[in-house]
Amino acid sequence: MNDNDDVWSLVHAERAALIEDLTGLDDKQWDLPSLCDGWTVHDVVAHLVNTARTTRLGFVSGMVRARFDFDRQNARGVERERGASPQETLERLRQVASRRSGPPAPLDTRLVEEVVHGEDIRRPLGLTHSYLPEAVVRSLRLQARTSASFGGAKERVSDVQLAATDTDLRIGEGPQVRGTALSLLLAISGRREALDELDGPGLDTLKAAS
Description:
210 residues; mainly alpha; 5% strand
């Protein structure tokens, strides 16, 4: 099995776990605000459907139509894939769960989508999930080295060292920010709620950059 196969195996496992967690939710739960500003749980699920359908060519043409505005492109994708009911959107997620397509970006961005948006959905619902460790670590490494202009956190973490307490992962140099790999990932991905789960002498620096 090559590295691409490994990544897609992780992506598919996380999609399947999310589908299981979403099954049986009532409409009020689907309408709860997610951790993703301005989006409900339902909206984030629709976004995941849209990103699972995305192809390299489709992404480029979509960006042209959106006049190279990522937010506009994402909003259009949510509108397109949000079903008339939560059940319809969930069925669409089931239909795309095994896809292996994505935009012209590093493959590990598919893991970032599943893990970060998985928590955007689960935390407001009071759900917990044990993510596959490799999925979280790969996502954290990618976010830390990717520029903010491409959805990453390179500039945000440039003056601190990220130290995961549940693995031996260390990223960067400077005063440490400590926490689980998942909490670090969420915090550097703009989910300020996760900052309260971190500690260390570099935390104030990270907060100031967030």
